[in-house]
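fyi for ur records
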Amino acid sequence: MNIYTLNLGELGTNCYIVETAPDKCIAIDIGGNPEVFLDFIKSKNLTLDKILLTHGHFDHTEGVKKVQEETGASVYIHSGDATMLEGGSSSLAAFFGRPSQKTENYTEIHDGDIIESGNIKFTVMHTPGHTKGSVCYIADDVIFSGDTLFMGSMGRTDYPGGDIDEMRESLKKLKNLSGDYKVYPGHFDSTTLDWERDSNPYMRGL
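which gave:
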């Protein structure tokens, strides 16, 4: 699985581009700078098939509208965060002084759904805590964890829709997965699930 990382938007959000076939890719979160994203996939001769969103905060979705208009890619977001794509205040765009980028053409997803692209299947794991509709995407031995799990840390729970008890349950759900995984979070560096089980203070005691 070829995975490329772009750091997009003013809050430094990781956008992951996963090559799912020789000429096809999906994107996980497009937090801004849509022109940078579009130039990158063009340079790799890739056609964007789908955009998978880990949650609805603006720093993970700000580039989605333009990229969808340019590529026709389908957009997926958990039902708990869907209204954020339509300009809801819980996207935090207004809070950070950013204009709302409304995306009205999307598909709502739920826990356990499987999204296919090319030769890869992405399983949706609902992991509320940062937002009501936060999810992780699992493909083979890789977890795209959004703002649920970071290296040595976890996502904030003090924004609207956040809940510390739900976050603990979500981290426990990840901890209890069988085997090790490479973890690609929404911000900062990648890590592994085994390292987080042993070293992350928010996960270790669960």
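The two ends are 31 Å apart (CA to CA). thats all i got for now
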